[in-house]
Structure formats: structure tokens, C-alpha cells
Design brief:
Elements lengths: L2 H28 L9 E7 L3 H12 L4 E5 L25 H14 L33 H14 L3 E4 L9 E4 L2 E6 L5 E9 L5 H5 L4 E2 L5 H4 L20 E3 L50 E2 L5 E3 L12 H8 L7 E6 L3 E6 L19 H24 L5 H8 L2 E3 L20 E2 L7 H4 L8 E5 L3 E3 L3 E4 L5 E4 L2 E3 L5 E4 L13 E2 L8 H7 L2 H21 L8 H10 L7
Parallel strand pairs: 1-2, 1-6, 2-3, 6-21
Antiparallel strand pairs: 4-5, 5-6, 7-14, 8-19, 9-13, 10-13, 11-12, 15-20, 16-19, 17-18
Length: 569
Amino acid sequence: MTELSAFFKAKVVLRNLKMLLAVSIMLWISCGAPTAADPEYDVVIYGGTSGGVAAAIQSTRMNKSVVLIEPENRIGGLTTGGLGQTDIGNKIAIGGISREFYERIKSFYDRPENWKWQEKEAYQDGGQTRTGANENSMWTFEPSVALAIYEDWIKNENIELIKNEKLDRKNGVKMENGKIVSITTLSGKSFSGKMFIDATYEGDLMAAAGVSYRTGREANSEFEETLNGVHTKLTDTTMSGLPAHNAINHNFVDGVDPYIVAGDTSSGLLPYINPDGPGVDGEGDNNLQAYCFRMCLTDHPENRIPFEKPQDYEEINYELLLRNYEAGEDGFPWINSAMPNRKTDTNNRTGFSTDFIGQNYNYPEASYEERDRIREAHRNYQKGLMWTLANHPRIPDHIRNEVARWGMCKDEFEREDGWQDQLYIREARRLDGVMTMTQYHCEGIEVVQDPVGMGAYGMDSHHTQRYVNDAGNVKNEGNVEARVAAPYPISYRAILPKENECKNLLVPVCLSATHIAFGSIRMEPVFMVLGQSAATAACLAIEQNQNIQEVDYARLQSKLLEDNQVLGI
């Protein structure tokens, strides 16, 4: 054989080998070869809220592989979205990672270089959030500071964080033998895990997994409560005898006409009034307490963005606000709590304020696109409200002049207009779990024996609807403000689905509670506490190869106490 023919023969053999290799690779892939796009973790957390962040930190501290998946671009939920006036009830109830967060806040503001817009000595917090002279925690903060602390924490704990990945709510949860095997996002990314935690405000993962849940308000009769369901009349006590205030707070003054042409019923109702009436007192419905944006405002001229008039502004949407002042309202329509650096956490107050009452009922079950529309409608409503308060001649001078001093902050959120994207989802879905927390638990009449955290805030619900009363005036309905006697324990079983529905899912945010009990539990520091406890239980279940409902409570309790959780007072 000549050297030339040998050369060509070798080329043919090499070509055939390449073809055989290519075919083999194609067959290997088609038969389901493993890919880097489908990693497996010990703990998969969906929802980068404050509770989700705490769960991720605890998982990695217990030496478990963890991924934290946030459907939007910003982690921290309301804690980084404007709610800097921490709702606590009693500071002694807050421990563990949640307490660590507020200690980090204090350390940040102890440094003089972090006071850009005012001197540290000029700042004064107040009420339940006032930091004591010898206290090592601080309970008021700027949203951007909370975000920086969370991001630094996640980086230092080596937590894998994935943002802008929304769960495929129709086909994105793979179940086998009563357990979640993997979840898939709309982009096609899949995440396999041994344990899953739903830390969203909406409860999207639990719903997609087929777990039972509730929305709206239960009738009082369902759990023999007194503060649930419809409330148009004043109730002055709870079951335990403590004061409760329903209906009267954050309401219209008497005499506000509800019709487009005052006194003319044929002209139709003004916007956002329920034409069907409020329903029967104590009966349940699908109404949700109102949402709003917890605005971060400033009066510093170099950092202030003046309130702008929305392009689609219609004065009729604010006619009830104007009539309320003309009928005798004299209060400011906001709670303007001072935050560091001449900023605020601004919340709803009086009968017509930042709450967009009755316009959120569809939110829990809505598509992502519809949720975006609901969120934008809330933002435009609130923009129009602030412009009206700051500029309209029918607003009393002392209110108009004060509101006009304020504006959105240039240095807080990503949007050019200074508004955040995090809507205050006060309540959406609620797990229907192994047990349900009720008014009895909040009032201390019933006490659970398997606590994983403590609630301490009063039972609180914002209004859910506007209606016309028997006198022909407009009123709000749904507000409840009821004290609790002392911090009370929250059951481990309240964050667990029923075992026949899912064996490896925990729900520390949309936990199992009635509407009125959830109104006490639903506070950011408590969500962090419950997130840590959920992760602890998940890790113990992995170590013992158990379903999440089978975790030995004594073992869980021991680990929670070791990690400085507060389970009793």
C-alpha cells in the first residue's frame, strides 16, 4: 500500500469515528442525559421575602444545599419595599435570625458615615419601634439599608440566589408519591429538591402543588370567633374581654354623599363603592383587606421627587376624599412615621387614604399579567391621591401645604419616579393546614403545645369594601383593631399542609390561620421567625429521612432554642 492510499484510508476511518461519536452523543441526550440546568438541592425556597431570606440563611447554617428563588428583581419583600416602621407588638417575642437582622440595622446606623441627609442626633423614632437606651437592636430603617443587609448576608452565607424566575403555576410543579420532586419556572429552569418552602406572600407554590387553602374572610360561626366576617357595627370587646374597635376607625365622617351628583340616586354611585351592600354582619365572604404601597417619602429638597399627576388622572376618583373633608374630616390622611435620613414609612389613615379599598379581590388567583395590572392600578391610584392632597384647592390649606412639602425619594428604588414595585400584599391565600390558628389562640384562650415562633401584634384588618349605609352615606367596612393580652405561641402544624396533600412542603408566610388570626401573625419579624423555623424542620426531616409532618417536635424545639428562637415568654 502506498503512503498516499494509507493516508486516505486513515481519513475515512477518522471520519466514520466522528460520525459514530456524533450519533452516540445525540442518542445520549435524547435518552435523558443529566444537564446543568436541572440542579438538585436539599432545600428549595420559592419567594425571596424576609421569611424566605431567613429560611435560606438557616438552611445553609445547618449545612444543607439551598437555593433561594425570587420571582421579581428585589429580595426582602415589604422589609425592603417601604415597611420600615416595624410592626412588633412586643419586642421580647422576636429571636433568632429575625433578631439578628434588627441588630444589623442598629450596627449600620451606629456608624456616623451612614447619616447622609440628617445628623444622627436629629432623628427620633417613636411608639413601639423606639430603640431603648441600652438596646442593641433598631426597628426603623430605610428600605435600601434593609436590602443592602440582606444582600450582604446572602453573599457571606454563600447562598445561591436566583432572581426574576417566576414559577410556572400551571405545569411547573412535579409531584411523585405525595412529594414535590421539582419546580419549573416560566423560563424553563427546573430545580429539584428534597424539601420545599413557599415563602411568597401569595402562596403560589402551595397552590400549584394542589395543597388546600383559603381566601377571604371566614364566617364567625366556622371557628366560633367574634372578629371575623363582615363588620359594619362597633364591637368593643374581644372574647377575652380586651378592647376591640371595628368599623369606626379609618372611616368616613357622617354625611358624605355617595352619588355622582350629590343627592341624585339616579346619577349612579361614585367609583369604588360596592352597589350590593356590605353583607350580613359576621358572615364570611371573599373580600380581602386592602392593599397599598408603603411609601418612603422625604422632605429633603435635594433628595425629593415632587408628587406627579398621573396621565390618566380623573378627579371623580377622588371626589369622596374631597367630600369627606367638606363634611368635616380634619385629620391627616396618612401615618407618616419617621425613618432615618429624613425619610418616612407612610401608611393609610382616615376614611380615604392610601388603601385602594375593594380593588384587590382578584389578586391571589390572578395571572402574573393581571397582577401587574392590579399593581399598576394601585400605584396610579396612589399617585393621583398624593397629587390631589398636595395640589387640589378643595383640600384644606393646612393639609395641602404639609403634603406638598413631601415627595418620593431619589435614592431608594429603581424606578425613576421614586416608587417601589413591592405592593403591600396584606393577605392573599392562606394554607388550610394540619391545624388552624384562630382568634382563640391570639387571645390566649387556647394555647398550642408545639410552638415554632410567637405572635404579639394585635388582631388587625384593614377595610375590605365601601358601601352605602341605611342613612344614605358612604362608609368603609372591614376594619378590626383588637389587642392581644400577651405574646402567644404559633403552632408548627400551622405551617404544614395535610400529609395526604404534600409531605415535603412548608408554608411559613401564607400559614394556616383564619382571616382575623392572620391579621395578628402577618408581621415581617414574625415571617422571619417562621421562615427560620420552617428551614430548621426541613433540615431535620432530611437528616432523618422523614416526611415533614413526621418531624419529632422535641428535637425541633431543642434546635430552635439552641438557635435563639423565642418559643415562650
